[in-house]
Amino acid sequence: MSAIFIIFLLFIAATTLAIYLSKRLLIDRPLVKRELDAPPPVSLFGGQGNELPIAIDDVQQLEKQRAELLARAANGDVSVLHEAHAAENETLYDAALDLLVTGCADDSECLRRLAAEVAAGGELRANRRLAEALIEDWKESPEGNLMAEMLHVAALSDDAALYEEAVNVALRFSCADNSRPMSGKDFCKLVESQFWVLSAQARASGAGFMLKERLAEIRRELAVSKREDS
User: Fold this and answer.
1) Could you tell me if residue 79 is inside a domain?
2) Domain span at 148
């Protein structure tokens, strides 16, 4: 009985000592104070009172230039494409190109001149509206010597599905026109070379994958047709 009592006293003493030491550590621990530097005051008006009017003037000047450029595009000035491209303004470029395409409505020669300008421009790109218009125009009057340009403009639109449509249109014409036959090898070389004109993003898209499958299928079909004819 005395042994149990002694053990109980030792337990009480150990517990009391542990509580005392833990409190002592908390008392002796140095307090760490972190003072956060207040952020510098920021003016809601950018500091100088004359900066806001200057920004507004810049915006107004840009809007004026944009309106003037689009007005020139509406009047058929193709040179605006080079200016919009140099400004690296994709939205403005597309708007100007759309206006130029609209101006060539029901005018095949105008549309083909516009397409030729884009195709020969080097840094210029087409858009879906121009490519679609040229494909439809070429369907109405398919000319073998303009096939490459039609395919090139379709590829410049960076739309893999639209380029596939252009390839199918060109293939139907090549198979139907016996007056200017193009060998299957040359046709495949043409459409596959234009595939690389598409942007990397377009080639890597789902439509780009389907396009690659279609080009491979065309190559197989033309190879079989050649063997049957020989």
Assistant:
1) no
2) 127-230
